[in-house]
Amino acid sequence: AEKLLRQSEKLAVLGELSAGVVHEIKNPLTSIKGFLQLMQAGTIETKDYISILNTEIEHIEQIASDLLGFAKPSDEMKKQDLSVLLDSVVFLMNAQSKKHNVELNWAAPQDEYPVLGDESQIKQVFVNLIKNAIEASEEHGTVEIHLSNRDDQVVIQVQDYGCGIPEEMLNHIGDSFFTTKEKGTGLGLMITQKIIHNHHGKINIHSIVNEGTTFSVILPKYY
Ligand code: ADP
Ligand code: MG
Predict the structure, then answer these.
(1) pLDDT interval class at 9 (50, 70, 90)
(2) Which residues fall inside 5 Å of ion ligand 2, going by CB?
(3) What is the DSSP string of the chain?
(4) pLDDT band for position 62 (cuts 50, 70, 90)
(5) Mutation test residue for ligand 1: of 124, 179, 214, the one with most atoms within 8 Å of CB
(6) Whose CA is nearest to atom 3 of ligand 1?
(7) Per-residue pLDDT at 78 exceeds 80
(8) Ligand 1 atom closest to residue 185's alpha carbon, by position in its atom list
(9) CB-ligand 1 contact for 160 (6 Å cutoff)
C-alpha cells in the first residue's frame, strides 16, 4: 500500500509538471524543425548546423531521462547501507569527473550507515548532487563526499569549491526548471528534494559565492 501511495505521489508531481515539460520540449523541437526547413530549402549549409541540432536533441533526451528516473515505479523500501550505495555512485560518476578534470574525494568508511530506502532513488539523489558539484567546479577542482553517523541520523555531505550560489538564488533552488546552465534541465534538485522528502529526510544547502557549496542530506538511521 505504501508503495502505491509513493507511486501516486510521483505521478501527481509529474502531472503538475506536465505543462512545463511540454513547454521545455517544444522549444528545442521548434528550433530543430526551423533548422531542418532551412536546410531543406538550401538556405543554410547542413554541416554547420549539425551540432546545434545535436545539442537540441540532447536537451530533450536529458529531460526525458531525468523524468524517467523519477517516475519509474520504485522497489521495496529496504535496509540500505549508504556507504555501499555511495561507493557505487562514486564509481559511476568517475568518468564524468575525469571529463571535467575534477577529482572525487571519497574514502569508503568502515562503519555501517543503515537507512530505510529505495536503492535506485537514493542513488539518483547522489548522482544529481555529485553531478551538480562537478559542473560547478572549475577545471582541476575537488569534490568531497563525506558520510557520518549523528545520533539517530545519517548525514551525507557533498562539498565543492566551485562557483557557489548567490543568496537571492537560494530560494529558487529545487524549483522545477530553474537552471543557470546552458544545457541544464532544472529538474535534478526538484527530483532530489522529492526523493529525500519521501524518505523522511532533509536537505540543507550552505553556499558562498566563489568559495563553494555544501549540500547536506540527513536521513533517519534504520535500526
Ligand atoms: P540543472 O543541473 O539541470 O541546472 P538542478 O536542479 O540540478 O538543475 O540545479 C539547479 C540549479 O542550481 C543549477 O542550474 C545551478 O544554478 C544551481 N546549483 C545546483 N548545485 C550547485 C552547486 N553545487 N554549485 C553551484 N550551483 C549549483
Ligand atoms: Mg543538475
Answers:
(1) confident
(2) 132, 188
(3) -HHHHHHHHHHHHHHHHHHHHHHHHHHHHHHHHHHHHHHHTTSS-HHHHHHHHHHHHHHHHHHHHHHHHHHSPP---EEEEHHHHHHHHHHHHHHHHHHTT-EEE----SS--EEEE-HHHHHHHHHHHHHHHHHHSPTT-EEEEEEEEETTEEEEEEEE-SS---HHHHTTTTSTT---STT--S-HHHHHHHHHHHTT-EEEEEEETTTEEEEEEEEEPP-
(4) very high
(5) 179
(6) 184
(7) yes
(8) 3
(9) yes
Query: Rounded to whole angstroms, how far apart are CA atoms 223 and 221?
Result: 7
pLDDT digit string, tens, across residues 150-174 = 999 999 999 999 999 999 999 999 9
pTM (2 d.p.):
0.91
**In the numeric block, which cell numbers belong to residue 56?**
537540441
pLDDT on residue 190: 95
- Residue 6 pLDDT class (50, 70, 90 cuts): confident
- Cβ–ligand 1 distance for 184 under 6 Å, the answer yes
Residue nearest to ligand 1 atom 11, measured at CA: 179
CA distances 66 to 139, 156, 183, Å, are 25, 22, 13
Respond yes or no on whether ipTM tops 0.90.
yes
Mean pLDDT, to the nearest integer, of 191-198? Answer: 94
Ligand nearest to the CA of 136: 1
